[in-house]
Amino acid sequence: MIDLTAISHIHIIGIGGVSNSAIAEILLEQGHKVTGSDLHATAITDALVKKGVKIYYAHEPEQINGAELVAYTSAVADDNPEILAAIDQKIPCVSRAELLGQIMAGYKNSIAISGTHGKTTTTSMVTRIFNDASFDPTALVGGYFSDIKSNVKLGKGEMFITEACEYKESFLSFYPKVGVILNIDEDHLDYYKNLDHIVSAFVKFSSNVIDKGTLVLNGDDYNSRKILPYYKGKCITFGLGENCDYVAKNITYNNMGYPTFDIFHKEKIITALSLQVPGQHNIYNALAAFTVALLFTKDIDRVKVALSTFKNANRRFEWVGTENGITIVDDYAHHPNEIKATLEAASRMTEINRIICIFQPHTYSRTKELLNDFASAFKYADEVILCDIYAAREQDLGEVNSSMLCDAMIKEGVSVIHFTDQNDILAHVKQHAVKHDLVITMGAGDVSLLSPQLLKILKTN
Questions:
Q1: Which among 318, 261, 300 has a CA at the least distance from the CA of 129?
Q2: 240: burial class by Cβ within 10 Å (0-12, 13-18, 19+)?
Q3: Which end of the chain has less Cβ packing within 10 Å, N or C?
Q4: Active-site residue, selected from the candidate residues 82, 163, 169, 369
Q5: Which domains does the chain have, with CATH numbers?
Q6: Single pTM value for the model
Q7: How far apart are CA 28 and CA 360, in angstroms?
Q8: Residue 119 among the catalytic residues
Q9: Catalytic residue among 35, 119, 291, 327
Q10: Is 163 a residue of the active site?
Q11: Candidates 116, 120, 122, 367; catalytic one
Q12: What is the pLDDT of residues 200-230, one digit of tens each?
């Protein structure tokens, strides 16, 4: 364990990332000198510079001079010049997750929210519940959250709230008082060997919950329940099944697809709750947040008001606008089960006639490993417009492409068309979208940039 209180200057490689930039803000607030490097200037790096962070837009060895600790992201290669220079100068190097774990250790009440799906929404919900002067938490969200006008909230209280990402087992650097497992699914198969390997990582995460801490777990999720024989501490489950501790019953949906339901605990009704976010998956997210909240407060009204007025985090079924009766929504879904959940939620909107989904696959490895699952994930869409694969951190090895996915979707009976040029997508939607259509841009890449362009061309159509 590194004692951060004894360190003055911390250098972060890849400081422009969403998580690293948030960590930089926390370190600044705690009085550390922070420097960093990245390849390009962005709005994120510009904001850090205004707050006093020196940022270099290249990777050169002399940039770590004076640092007492160097942190890096998983995307940084072992032969990075700054890493090599730090090793040569015997400056300690830690991963982003290890640094975040060290920061978390300084808070009395730490909450780490894990799961293949729903982390950002649930973290935002928990942050909303506690975001006032009585708790004043520090929170890290995996996307922009309007409540805090950022992806990070710097508080003075004893509570720390963060997402806990399973990629490359980074969440094993966290030792929370409350650990949450929303679900476990096949993903990140560029790192994990198989589903059993993924489950074993979550078993290790659960064992990191501190003594006298609590594990909050989705009791309906088959893979999450595999944790239970290995976890010996206090565990509280949530779900729709009667075997769970906190259960949602009497579920109905309005014309926007927003659910209303009763929450029961051990056969006793606690409260009714109406959400302003659509879909069954958000019932699970809200139940998880509700369960976590009751570990720290008995004020049910406080929790109910926070959840019933919650609006989605950035890119989580985000309402972009409506023009000529055509509605544009943007969503981050990039895994087959996320796609199913999002489109199922959209299908409950009674004022919508057709769902047009513009989907951008994210990473070659995920598309290759889950090709058949992707092909069958779009049954609630009336038409799918397929973009080329967004490479992100990967190289194209020629093993998979969007044309292959398109062919697989056609075999599943999906009405799908593939465009390599995003301008052709805009032209297609302009020509074919009609009143009462819902157009969803979907994926974890840059497909979201199409949303405002679509709104603009529909306005002039």
A1: 300
A2: middle
A3: N
A4: 163
A5: 4-93 (3.40.50.720), 107-308 (3.40.1190.10), 318-459 (3.90.190.20)
A6: 0.90
A7: 36
A8: yes
A9: 119
A10: yes
A11: 120
A12: 999 999 999 999 999 999 999 999 999 999 9
